[in-house]
Fold this sequence. Notes:
- By secondary structure, this protein is an alpha/beta fold.
- Helices cover about 40% and strands about 10% of the residues.
- The protein has eleven helices and six strands.
- A six-stranded mixed β-sheet has the order 3-2-1-4-6-5, with helices on both faces.
- Strand 2 (about 55-60), helix 3 (about 65-75) and strand 3 (about 80-85) form a beta-alpha-beta unit.
- The chain is elongated.
Amino acid sequence: MNINWYPGHMKKTKELLKEQLKLVDVVFELLDARIPLSSKNPIIDETIGNKPKVIILNKSDLANDTITKQWIDYYKKQGRYALSLDTISGRGLREVTVAGENAVKEKMNALQEKGRRMRPVRIMIVGIPNVGKSSILNRLAGRKSAKTGDRPGVTKGKQWIRLKGNMELLDTPGILWPKFEDQEVALNLAFTGAIKDEIMDIETLALKLIEKLWLTDKEKLMDRYKVGEEASLPLEVMNEIAKNRGCILRGGEVDYSRTANMVLDEFRGGKIGKISLEKPLILA
Length: 284
């Protein structure tokens, strides 16, 4: 599969980031805890420069807890502050607020010493589509301030939102990059829903996911779909899943479209299990 997706509003978002960066004190970069490497937009660091940044591994409720901790340790060794967040339950939300305040404490103290009137800490939140930016914004604001959805590209323009305490947050649309040099990265983004399903061959995508999970999380796949060990090839596994879940057309043929959508939806919803597709060890 050759996957690329770069809607026009994302080009505008890159320009918006550069334009608004001078107005903010700290940047929250949201990554998908299941794929921290693939969900990191390579243009973010070059765009924000030396601006203070907090890395937030969102959707930690869907990721392997042990591997998420390994990622946090990995960033810590690199001198970067990272924390995990589950916007569904709110676990980690307090740490996000504290991290934002600590990142700009020296700057705010310096302003106060100069006799400047204290103003809200201004935060910019950035990340790829469907990583949960609007969800964390609504959690921090304590109300529904931004549109949310399980589809990439829900947020289309900038929004300044007043948060609890002395903070303001700038929400921005999700931004992908024009071309994926590494198709493994593209697949990981597609598996987790960062790229619109409408532009892809869903049946092949699901087959690729089954192939990956059969190598990394076979027991979870077998337990969820009651697949036996004798099914070794991805297509055989998919056929077993279809049979066991009743995804069969008239005449006994496998309904691959229904099976594919089911597997992708259940993976994205955490029903197959808490699964991380990337480990920090590959970066060592």
